[in-house]
Amino acid sequence: MNVHDFRIDVPAVVIEDLRDRLRGTRWPDQVEGVGWGQGTEREFLREVVAHWGHNFDWFAVQDRLNHCAQRLVEVSGGLRVHVVHERGEVEGGQPIVLLHGWPSSFVQMLPIMPMLTQPSRYGGSAGDAFDAVALSLPGYGFSDRPTDAGWDLRRIADAVVEVMEALGYTTFAGRGSDLGAGVLQQLALAYPDRLVGLHLSGTNPYLGWVPDDLTPEEQSFVEAAQDWNAREMAYAQEHSSKPQTLAHALNDSPAGLASWVLEKFRAWSDCDGDLRNVYDLDDLLTNLTVYWVTETIGSSMRLYWEAARSTNAAYGRVEVPTGMAMSDKDMFPTPRAWAERSYRLTRWTKLQRGGHFLEWETPEPLAEDIRVFFRELRTARLEG
After folding, report:
1. CB-neighbour burial class of residue 222 (10 A; exposed 0-12, middle 13-18, buried 19+)
2. Does the pTM of the predicted model rise above 0.70?
3. For 222-230, what is the mean pLDDT?
4. Among 1, 99, 223, 325, which residue is least crowded by beta carbons within 10 Å?
5. Given a cut of 90, is residue 25 above it in pLDDT?
6. pLDDT tens, 304-339?
7. Which intervals hold domain Epoxide hydrolase N-terminal (predicted)?
8. Residue 20 predicted with pLDDT over 80
9. CA angle at residue 367 from 362 to 372, to 5 degrees?
10. What is the 3-class SS of the chain, one letter each residue?
11. Phi and psi at residue 203, in whole multiples of 5°?
12. What residue numbers bound the domain in which 138 lies?
């Protein structure tokens, strides 16, 4: 069997080393009054590092995570993929794979999993229950780090199909954002018969070829994307060109890791400039600690390098029925007309709150939109 039960078991010496490094952080200077204008604000990061090093209880978090049903699934080439696999309250529920992006991890999906698997506890119908699979992308979290080149979005899409088959699902639904949405796009193009539908969110700043028949709303979107790329895209350029250079620093310094990751959470979330308006600090530190103890910051960034050099990516318009839950508080607003150029949209929801990490920021409305979308698809299939 290539499916094995898994429990997180981080050695105490790893956590003590983390705390020692946090306590020994060597702080840079900062221009007076600049705030976040030049990047991560020092005093905020001091607070984070102090809490991480002195108050954050990883082992209590580890115990809570281990209450989830976790598996390691071996795919072609021997790489093991970590999943949290929770079955729905009704036998035979719709299977759904949940895919995160960067700088996130499988823990982003945990808030909505009970809302999908046990909907009757959250004001929904038991008939909408899913079998939910939160999958850690290869090179992220407790999935193995690829040791060979070529693990691009398409190859990961192949692995997702293998994982779902190993868990007993030949067809399934997909939910994702960021790089996870990119994997699902590749899966939908390469294996359309495997997917009953896609549910996506998140602005994509990669424009690629820009058509010459833009609507005024699309033209505004392209201009916003170009402006965002000029101001905010340096991180992705580094990931895509020299990820190993940065990996040496971030794999060695937890304060550096926190600075690199939390600046993106602040910039991409609907938090009015203060992460504490949206997130519990321990949730952010859980995500950071997963990166630290698995030493996956380097392999996670390497996915950008792989995507930029992919030679086997599928291209075309996705014809799998797709629903999108979109927020104008993400990087910048995306018009429906632009999304329809790439996807067969059958549902489009404008969310009033939330940014790039909706499973964390607004789990209840997101879970409800997922349930409604796939219920509509089931009804349409029955009527058809």
Report:
1. middle
2. yes
3. 93
4. 1
5. yes
6. 999 999 999 999 999 999 999 999 999 989 999 999
7. 4-108
8. yes
9. 135
10. CCEEECCCCCCHHHHHHHHHHHHCCCCCCCCCCCCCCCCCCHHHHHHHHHHHHHCCCHHHHHHHHCCCCEEEEECCCCCEEEEEEECCCCCCCEEEEEECCCCCCHHHHCCCHHHHHCHHHHCCCHHHCEEEEEECCCCCCCCCCCCCCCCCHHHHHHHHHHHHHHCCCCCEEEEEECHHHHHHHHHHHHCHHHEEEEEEECCCCCCCCCCCCCCHHHHHHHHHHHHHHHHHCHHHHHHHHCHHHHHHHHCCCHHHHHHHHHHHHHHHCCCCCCHHHCCCHHHHHHHHHHHHHHCCHHHHHHHHHHHHCCCCCCCCCEEEEEEEEEECCCCCCCCHHHHHCCEEEEEEEEECCCCCCHHHHCHHHHHHHHHHHHHHHHHHHHHC
11. -70, 140
12. 3-24+38-383
In whole angstroms, give the CA distance from residue 322 to residue 330.
19
Q: What is the CATH number of the domain that holds 111?
A: 3.40.50.1820
**What's the structural domain count of the chain?**
1
Does residue 33 fall inside a structural domain?
no
Mean pLDDT for the chain? 96
Closest-CA residue to 370 (of 168, 142, 113, 153): 113
Reply yes or no on whether the pLDDT at 1 is more than 80.
no
For residue 30, tell me if it sits in a domain.
no
